[in-house]
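Ticket #217: bound-state structure for cytidine-5'-monophosphate.
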Amino acid sequence: MSTPIVIAIDGPSGSGKSTCARKLSEALGFKIVETGAMFRTLSWYCQREKIDLDDAKAVTNACRKWKASLVQTDNAIRLVVDGIDPGDALRAAKIADGAAKVATIAKVRDWMKAKQRSCLDFGSLVMEGRDIGTAIFPETDFKFYIDAPLKARDERRKLEGITEDLAKRDKADSERAAAPLMMGLGAICIKNFGRPVEETVAEMLSIIESRRRTKTK
Ligand code: C5P
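RESOLUTION: The complex was predicted; output attached.
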């Protein structure tokens, strides 16, 4: 069996990276991991258990003790807690805001990193988030950074029926001390604005195929 590979996709909220990741995973036959959903799941769990999201010690303890495991549904790998997949509940703005808070806690990120790296047990991956190319799989040869202007990202979220303060989340994600959002070394920046998603995905696929060919030479 060939060694599994990881396609790392990072970028700010609403840049379209989830859509690109989903389409890429289908085209390549790889599993998809949306790591934001893992942070959202912890935020959802803490809010359900009435744990103060500003109390780093309490959140870290919860993260150490919760019964969270990875499951594969179709081609997606997701985190379930106490056997529950919170599903659409994760899309609420208060869950997203809470995710950005728990994501600042270094010990939470250590837990997430171990879990996210263990996704490789499921096979080759398309993994998207904020720190995949910088902290989770810095060794991968396949790194992308997807970007789009704030106005376009705001509009995309509104079309999805979601009201979020993306500027606030951008600031929190890129200014935090623990694994801030940034472009990984060797990452290819894709400007995903004003072009059809199929075109972006085709460009990414062609880069991946050419790198895979070079690697096998
Ligand atoms: O991607 P999504 O909007 O679902 O992510 C929710 C929040 O989780 C982000 O705003 C960010 O604070 C955090 N996150 C992170 N690192 C990741 C993925 C998400 O810090 N790899």
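RESOLUTION NOTES: Residues 13, 35-37, 39-40, 96, 99-100, 103, 129-131, 169, 173 surround cytidine-5'-monophosphate (CB under 6 Å).
TICKET STATUS: resolved
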